[in-house]
Amino acid sequence: MPTPMDVLLVDPLVPEALAWLQERHDVVYLPELADDPAELRRALADARAVVLPPHVVVSQEFLDHAPNLMMVARMQISSDNTDLNACAQRHVRVLQARSATVRSNAEYLLYGLLMLYRRGMVSALLGRKLGQVRMGRELAGSTVGLLGLAPVAHTLAPMLRSLGVRVLGYDPAVHHAAELWDKLHVEPVPLQELLERSDAISLQMVYASRFKGWINERLLNHCKTGQLWVGVSRSALFEPEALALALCDGRIDACLLDGANAQFAAPGSPLYGIPNLHLTPRLGSHTREAKLRASWYLAHRIHETLSPDDARREPGSSDFAMLDSLGFPESGDPPQSASPSQWASLAALSRD
Length: 352
Fold this sequence. Notes:
By secondary structure, the chain is an alpha/beta fold. It has helices at 15-22, 37-43, 60-64, 84-89, 102-117, 119-125, 151-162, 179-184, 191-197, 217-220, 240-249, 288-306, 308-313, 340-351, and strands at 7-9, 27-29, 49-52, 71-74, 93-96, 143-147, 166-170, 187-188, 200-203, 227-231, 252-258, 277-280. Helix 5 (102-117) packs across helix 7 (151-162) and helix 12 runs parallel beside helix 14. The longest helix is centred in the last third of the chain and has 19 residues, at 288-306. The protein is elongated and about 60 Å long.
């Protein structure tokens, strides 16, 4: 018989958040179900909420096995692993800790820029001698273009400015006269000019299906020679053939992308084996602090969904509304401005 449960946990929360949630609900932790679709569907029969890793797809068929499901929750952001229409028809809430990873992704992009500017450091760590190490460049005095003003860009922009970087920006969804540009101290420019003037491009666009293959040959023809690219956006934004050609002919000197689709540079892809294309497996969000923020956010939201009256009555309940939206903040402050120590204090408060 299925184990009675309120919450089926397939992707782990931090221990403190898990203990807090277990005090209020029946929680079953079965991480092995992430790679066992048949058993996962059997376990869904009694679950009212489920926390899933990114690679588990929620479809109409998935929901057919979960008659009591009220919420699908995920620690990471993704728009291609959940049938939102099917969930809406079943009145199943879809929850993602959308802003919990903003700062960690911004730091990943900054690290990526520093690494590509100073690739000789990596070579030296691998044991190469000075004469074999490539001459580096300094970020200070260079120009970095922000392609996309997703919340990550709000945090990355002041980091870059503090290092003496001139910051340009373009976002197809943000008018060039919007106040946001002034608040972020980013110079808005047309897309073609962004590519022509920038020494490096940081890609953090919010993906929509209409942007599939949007970064194509016509666009990349405007790259400043030897340009560097870093990104945390969906790899589907790129037209693989166009990116491969730009990497091979010198328009793009190197490209570092986080969380690319598994087939993006697989055998048979035009990007397969290109040495100056570097891919990492969602390392941008892989920090202790991001995990802490996401875990407490999901724990509170699950409790509010399953027991709304109890959640309202609890003292010291926290407002996590800031983490619900990918929209731009009303103030000029970067999103996710709370420090890890503040989040630790929140966690301690919640355990009391």
